[in-house]
Amino acid sequence: MEENKIRIGITQGDINGVGYEVILKTFSDPTMLELCTPIIYGSPKVAAYHRKALDVQANFSIVNTASEAGYNRLSVVNCTDDEVKVEFSKPDPEAGKAALGALERAIEEYREGLIDVIVTAPINKHTIQSEEFSFPGHTEYIEERLGNGNKSLMILMKNDFRVALVTTHIPVREIATTITKELIQEKLAIFHHCLKQDFGIGAPRIAVLSLNPHAGDGGLLGMEEQEVIIPAMKEMEEKGIICYGPYAADGFMGSGNYTHFDGILAMYHDQGLAPFKALAMEDGVNYTAGLPVVRTSPAHGTAYDIAGKGLASEDSFRQAIYVAIDVFRNRQREKAARVNPLRKQYYEKRDDSDKLKLDTVDED
């Protein structure tokens, strides 16, 4: 059973935030080591500093590569300059450089087949910027490096509550012009496929939120619903994707209507994530759908306001581990099912679909 454990590559994120705290707290519980083989990409020195400063009882081994990671152990691959200093709560370009180095090493070893999934600790999106990283966040960077031409979809989720975004990290003034019929259809297709493949939902029901207040109020408050969103949805419905709306975001969330759907597609970042984080931030998970790689992250950020104080909850990070494991297993099951599909037993004809016709060679 040991060799069947999923190998989880964990990036250290911003060393001045709560990343190491939530990682170490998660794996201080020995039962977590029974579920997976965790490998941190970061710095043993920095990990030891956090462990001592926060008094977290979590042991780890130092390895050169994920191939050396032992079972029932937390391992650390050293990919950070030993001279880097931890200064809790401080935005620091050196911390950004360390975060990028860990991410790059995790991606490299994923490509080599040494890890199965990637779970990222939070980064500071400003300090990580460099010639090598000019992206709004993890999602866009991982799409570029591991997408193989596939487009990603950001999903924030807690159990069956899943919120996906048409647009992500862009200025508010650019939202309306960025949202097109084609973009909505792209995101609906990815969302639909993800709900089926990654979460095992046979016929997903997706709710689509409007862009304007009151769903545009018949054009009084904007024409995007009439001219862009509704036409996009109608075309996708014709392709077999079950989607409803567009719903006015305030009433949809406030009435609890969101509980009746497998997924919710919001038009922009704060429209979807503000209510999600109000309802589910403590153990919410950020999941990057649509890519060959399974990547998750806790729903919170670096949390500089509580970094180094021992106050960070590991619930969201633990859930990110669980989701990564579940999605990887679901994909493996689907892959196995497609290898030897059941042979077709009848022809799908409208006039005689009730008759069983064995798909055999005519012996006349």
UniProtKB/TrEMBL annotation:
GO molecular function list: 4-hydroxythreonine-4-phosphate dehydrogenase activity; metal ion binding; NAD binding
Enzyme Commission number(s) from the entry: 1.1.1.262
Leading EC class: oxidoreductase
Signal peptide: none
Keywords: Metal-binding, NAD, Oxidoreductase
Top-rank lineage group of the source organism: Bacteria
Protein name: 4-hydroxythreonine-4-phosphate dehydrogenase
UniProt organism field: Bacteroides faecis
Gene behind the chain: pdxA1
